Each structure stands twice: as structure tokens, then as C-alpha cells.
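Standup notes
- HV: blocked on the assembly model, inputs below
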Amino acid sequence: EAQVTQNPRYLITVTGKKLTVTCSQNMNHEYMSWYRQDPGLGLRQIYYSMNVEVTDKGDVPEGYKVSRKEKRNFPLILESPSPNQTSLYFCASSLPYYEQYFGPGTRLTVT
Amino acid sequence: DAKTTQPNSMESNEEEPVHLPCNHSTISGTDYIHWYRQLPSQGPEYVIHGLTSNVNNRMASLAIAEDRKSSTLILHRATLRDAAVYYCILRDGRDDKIIFGKGTRLHILP
């Protein structure tokens, strides 16, 4: 089944403790992207990648890192999480310029 | 970066057509217009996209103004399952950066 998977689905952590949210797709898509969704602000793009070893900043990249060492994986790294990064995170993948497939979301709480 | 403007919310009756508007007055010639919807407690779901011409698929139709500064998503016969937040977004044809707006919350009345 074609899908985008994210892990973990739920995470509660403390300020400053490094964490990684994994994202994997099985559709051989070149394009992958991370978004955060906050009440009243809609979805905002954090980082995106058009192919292996190619990443670019979206609208809200501060405080986040990504890497794209393999085509199927696009982990989101929070080196030193802060409470303002408490949010719902979505990973997505697609062929360039075509429809995106979204993962189920990761709800992160930073205390 | 080009952005989109949508009404915060709209209401429609079940089994009637729904026209969801989107303004994108700063659209560039290489921007694709995409529509997604998000049902409660789910990730966004692709609906339709286009560049210049009107588009139809099994879910909806997309009408794009001649000057491309606005577009309309048309749901031909709304059902209760179409109640969702609908996002109109521009996908940059040069660097593929994506900007979501705040979307329109569509309420369907039985």
C-alpha cells in the first residue's frame, strides 16, 4: 500500500532534549516536505527536499534541521526543542509539482 | 512568495453545488494552483490542481480565471462527508516551495 509513515505519532518531551521525528515513503517520490500546523495559523512549511542531498528552507525553518540521505526517508530533527515548537507535524511526499501524500501526523508537546 | 486568500468559512446545503473561492493576485507564471482538504483529525488530502486551464476529476472541478489571479473549487453535489477545511495553495514551479493559506472551513447542512 502506498503510504507515508511518521514516527512517533505522539511525543511529550522536555525543553532542550534533542529529538528526531522520522518520515518514510514507499512511492519512490523525489519531493518530501515537513509542515507544522497550529490553531489559527494553518499549515506552514518547515523544510522541503527535491531529491537526495537537496534540502531547502520553507516558511518556518528556525529551530529545525532535516537531512535527506536516502530517497525514502526525511527525518525532522529538533536539536534543542522549546515550548513554542509544540505543534502537530505532518510529513508529505510527491513527484515534483504533483499531488502530495501526507502522513498521519505527529503531535509533539514540549514542556 | 505568492500567497492565497480564502474566506474563513462557508456553509452549504447537502446535495447542492459548492463554489469555494480563492484569490492569488500575486501568482507568478510558474505557480501551480493546488487544492487540498483536511477532514477532522486527519492529514490533508489532495483534491485537484491546475496551471492555466480548468480541470475536472472525480472529486471536484477547478475553474481558473483567465488572468490566473483567482480560482474556484467546485464540488458538484456536496455531501456531509465533504465537511472539511479546504486549502488553496500555490506550488512554485521553479523551486517547488509550497505556501498554505489558512483555508476555508466548509460546513454542510443536512
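- HV (later): unblocked. Chain B has a mean pLDDT of 91. The first strand of chain B starts at residue 9 and ends at 13.
- Next: hand off to the docking folks.
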